[in-house]
Amino acid sequence: xxxxxxxxxxxxxxxxxxxxxxxxxxxxxxxxxxxxxxxxxxxxxxxxxxxxxxxxxxxxxxxxxxxxxxxxxxxxxxxxxxxxxxxxxxxxxxxxxxxxxxxxxxxxxxxxxxxxxxxxxxxxxxxxxxxxxxx
Length: 135
Known about the structure:
With 135 residues, this protein is mainly α. It is 80% helix and 0% strand. The two termini are 21 Å apart.
């Protein structure tokens, strides 16, 4: 076990989890719709690919910091398990329209955010004449 990397991932996971919690507090679950979970997952779907493509490439972050931010912070910040439970709750409470919107916005929106982030990162790296590296 790599103690240094594990501690870094743990510290960043703490920060990511706290950030997710605080953002979630800012959203009311109007009618049971999980706006907080949706928001953090879409934010994470944008930020993680941007980080992996641009920030690491432009600022040449070391592998340990990239691991701590990617796996630690964003692993705790975004949440597939909460997404799944929220979707199940909408389905079980017969909120079929909300269920469909939640799935659609989460899945299509998440992929769209990732594509947009990667596109933007590539454009910025090209503007600086830098190599486009994905770790």
